[in-house]
Amino acid sequence: MKREAKLNKQQYAYEVIRSRILNGTYGPGQRIVIDQIAKEVGSSSIPVREAIRQLEADGLIEYKPNSGAVVSTINEQEYLDTLSVLAVMEGYATRISAERIGDQVLNELEELNQQMQKALEEFDFEQFGRLNRAFHEVIYQQCPNQFLLDTIRRAWQRLDSVRRSGFTLVPHRAKHSIEEHAQLISLIRTKAPLEQIEAYAREHKLNTVRAFVNRKPNSSFAYLSSI
After folding, report:
1. Considering only CA atoms, which of 65, 37, 66 is closest in space to residue 49?
2. What is the pLDDT of residues 163-217, one digit of tens each?
3. At what angle are helices 173-189 and 76-98 packed, to 10 degrees?
4. Domains of the chain (ranges plus CATH)?
5. Which of 120, 101, 110 lies closest to 182, judged by CA?
6. Interstrand relation of 61-64 and 68-71 (parallel, antiparallel or unpaired)
């Protein structure tokens, strides 16, 4: 029972810290105060430390000399590198999902893409980002490679912790993302060759990388709700 209670407290601390990182409450580089969190979640410091180790494995927390545990930071080159690797992984994940996708899932994808268009028209870019993530999650629900999905989601988490710290939308990328989604749906519906579907999904992600690189010079490290 003690071990179960300890695990429950550790998991609770993990969820509390993780959610605060992903919603921007804890920004990149911010120190995680273990004693304060332990008091908030009603536990000793041990479950919190173990939760932090788990978050470190997820890439959301890192240790720095003289600071201890802090929210992971990522520079522009690391951001681009992560997106580029995601392009390869998501292209392959889409390929091995495509042959398992039927009309019901395709209709769901079309509905999500229509909702993305509505969110864009209303300039609701947070909703746009949520719908975009849901679009790709629906595809990956058909993916038989769980290790690949776990790796993709960990990379998403790492980027989420950065994107939520006040970045601006890359101009015009959202509109093109919707168009590319429609083309991807068409390729899957018409049973295009799997290598063509993989290449298109990979380019869809790489187009975001290009949009980031080519953004206006005076723009900040940009928020990308369409990745």
Report:
1. 37
2. 553 334 465 788 999 999 999 999 999 999 999 999 999 999 999 888 877 765 5
3. 20
4. 2-71 (1.10.10.10), 76-213 (1.20.120.530)
5. 110
6. antiparallel
Q: Is the pLDDT of residue 80 over 90?
A: no
Confidence of residue 222 (pLDDT cuts 50, 70, 90): very low
Residues 67 and 10: their CA atoms lie apart, in Å, by 22
User: Measuring CA to CA, which residue among 97, 17, 210 is closest to residue 222?
Assistant: 210
Between the alpha carbon of residue 23 and those of residues 16, 113, 126, the distances in Å are 11, 24, 11
Q: Which pTM does this prediction carry?
A: 0.72
| Residue 153: CB atoms within 10 Å | 13
